[in-house]
C-alpha cells in the first residue's frame, strides 16, 4: 500500500484561467492516487494563523506535499511561522536553474542559526512551486517517488525494541500492562468481565472546546477548505539562515518584530507591515527575511547561495542602477513608508549593520594604529 501523504494544493491570488486549469488538473490527478489526501486551500501567504486551514494542518501528523505559487523556501517558512512545522523534504521537481545549485556555500559552521536550537516534529514537508509544473503527470510521478522514499525511510527506522516485540519478546512495560490492565474490558481469572475504574484520560494539545474541523482528513478524497482570506503583506523569517542578530527589529519602526520567551526574533505584528515595503529584507545580513509576494526573486525566497555569488548584492535585491547600496535603498524605502504614515523620516541609521563589513575600515588610522603596525613589522 502506498505511503499515506497529505497534499496541500494552494491556489493563487489571481483567477487566471491557465493557472486555474493547471490547479484543477493536478487536483483531479492526485485525488485518484492511493494514500493521498488532497486539500485545496487558498493562498498560503494570506492565511490567518487561527483560520480553518491552518487549524486543520496543525492537527495532521502526516508528511506534507505542498504546491503553492511561492518559492519552496518561502512556502516552507510561511507554514512554519503559523505552527505547521517539519523537516525540509527535498523535491526533485525543481526549476532547471536549481538542479545543480549547491547550498553548501551558504552554510557557515562558525555561525549559530536559530533553527539549530529548534525541535521539529518527525515529518517531512515537501514544497513545489506551481510555476515550474508543466502538467499533472509530472506531479503524480513526484508524489509516487516521495511515497517510495518515505516508505523506505519508515521501514529502516524500526527500532530494536519494536523488532523484539514483533518477534515475541515482550518488554517489561508490556508485561506490566498484561498483568495489571488499565482498560475496563479485560477478563478476570474466571473468564468474566472484570470491573475496574477506567484509566484517567489525558488531553494532548488544545481542549476539546475548539472549533470543529471544516472537513474530515480520513476520507482520502479531494476536499476544499471553506476560507476566504484577504490579501496580506508581511515578512517571513527563514530560521535556517537567521542568526538572531536583531538587525531587523532595530531597523523596522512599525512594530512588526518582537522576541519570544527565549529572546528569539519573531514576526509579532505581521499586519503592521507597510504594504510593498521590503526594507528589512535588504538590511538582513543573512538574507533570512522573505517577502513571498515581492517581484524580486531573492527577496521573495528564491534560493541564493551568497558564498558563491559574483554579482552586486544591491542589484540582486532590487536596488536601482545608481551608487546606492542595499542599506541606502532600505533607508529610503523606510522613510517613504514613514512619510506615508504621517511620521518623520529618519534617514540612514547611525550604526551600520553587519552586511557591510568594510565599514570597519572607513575610519582613518591614528597614531596608535601606526605604532601597532610598526611593532608588527619588527622581525622579533
Plain-language structure description:
The chain is α/β, with parallel strands linked by helices and 380 residues long. Among the domains are: 5-156 and 217-224; 244-285 and 310-356, no CATH class. 29% of the residues lie in helices and 10% in strands. It has 12 helices and 10 strands. The chain has helices spanning 17-31, 52-58, 72-81, 136-156, 160-166, 172-179, 247-251, 279-283, 297-300, 313-316, 326-340, 367-377; strands spanning 5-10, 36-41, 64-68, 87-89, 124-129, 223-224, 236-237, 257-259, 265-267, 289-290. It has a 6-stranded parallel beta sheet with strand order 4-5-3-1-2-6. A two-stranded antiparallel sheet has the order 7-10. Helix 1 links the parallel strand 1 (5-10) and strand 2. The longest helix has 21 residues, at 136-156. The N and C termini lie far apart (75 Å). Mean pLDDT is 78; it is low at 190-219, 306-317 and 356-362.
Put the structure in a nutshell:
This protein has 380 residues and is α/β, with parallel strands linked by helices. It has helices at residues 17-31, 52-58, 72-81, 136-156, 160-166, 172-179, 247-251, 279-283, 297-300, 313-316, 326-340, 367-377; strands spanning 5-10, 36-41, 64-68, 87-89, 124-129, 223-224, 236-237, 257-259, 265-267, 289-290.
Amino acid at each position: 500500500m502506498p505511503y499515506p501523504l497529505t497534499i496541500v494544493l494552494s491556489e493563487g491570488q489571481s483567477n487566471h484561467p491557465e493557472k486555474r486549469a493547471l490547479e484543477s488538473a493536478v487536483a483531479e490527478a492526485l485525488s485518484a492516487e492511493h494514500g493521498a489526501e488532497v486539500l485545496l486551500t487558498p493562498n498560503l501567504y494570506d492565511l490567518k494563523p487561527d483560520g480553518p486551514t491552518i487549524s486543520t494542518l496543525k492537527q495532521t501528523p502526516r508528511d506534507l506535499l505542498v504546491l503553492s505559487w511561492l518559492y519552496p523556501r518561502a512556502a516552507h517558512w510561511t507554514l512554519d511561522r503559523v505552527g505547521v512545522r517539519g523537516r525540509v523534504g527535498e523535491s526533485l521537481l525543481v526549476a532547471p536553474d536549481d538542479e545543480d545549485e549547491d547550498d553548501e556555500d551558504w552554510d557557515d559552521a562558525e555561525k549559530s542559526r536559530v533553527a539549530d536550537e529548534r525541535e521539529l516534529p518527525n515529518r517531512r514537508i515537501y514544497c513545489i512551486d506551481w510555476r515550474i509544473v508543466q502538467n499533472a503527470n509530472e506531479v503524480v510521478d513526484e508524489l509516487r517517488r516521495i511515497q517510495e522514499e518515505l516508505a523506505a525511510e519508515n521501514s529502516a527506522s524500526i527500532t530494536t525494541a519494536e523488532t523484539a516485540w514483533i518477534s515475541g519478546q515482550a518488554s517489561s512495560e508490556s508485561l506490566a500492562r498484561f498483568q495489571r490492565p488499565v482498560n475496563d474490558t479485560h477478563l478476570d481469572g474466571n473468564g468474566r468481565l472484570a470491573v475496574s475504574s477506567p484509566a484517567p484520560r489525558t488531553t494532548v494539545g488544545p481542549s476539546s472546546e475548539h472549533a470543529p474541523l471544516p472537513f474530515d482528513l480520513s476520507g482520502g478524497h479531494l476536499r476544499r477548505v471553506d476560507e476566504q482570506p484577504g490579501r496580506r503583506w508581511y515578512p517571513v523569517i527563514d530560521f535556517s539562515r537567521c542568526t538572531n542578530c536583531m538587525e531587523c527589529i532595530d531597523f523596522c519602526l512599525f512594530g512588526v518584530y518582537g522576541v519570544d520567551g527565549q529572546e528569539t526574533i519573531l514576526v509579532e505584528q505581521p499586519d503592521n507591515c507597510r504594504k510593498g515595503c521590503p526594507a528589512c529584507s535588504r538590511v538582513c545580513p543573512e538574507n533570512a527575511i522573505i517577502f513571498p509576494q515581492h517581484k524580486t526573486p531573492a527577496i521573495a525566497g528564491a534560493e541564493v547561495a551568497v558564498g558563491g555569488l559574483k554579482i552586486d548584492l544591491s542589484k540582486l535585491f532590487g536596488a536601482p542602477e545608481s551608487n546606492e547600496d542595499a542599506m541606502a535603498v532600505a533607508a529610503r524605502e523606510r522613510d517613504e513608508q514613514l512619510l506615508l504614515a504621517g511620521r518623520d523620516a529618519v534617514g540612514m541609521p547611525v550604526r551600520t549593520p553587519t552586511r557591510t563589513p568594510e565599514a570597519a575600515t572607513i575610519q582613518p588610522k591614528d597614531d596608535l594604529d601606526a605604532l601597532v603596525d610598526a611593532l608588527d613589522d619588527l622581525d622579533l
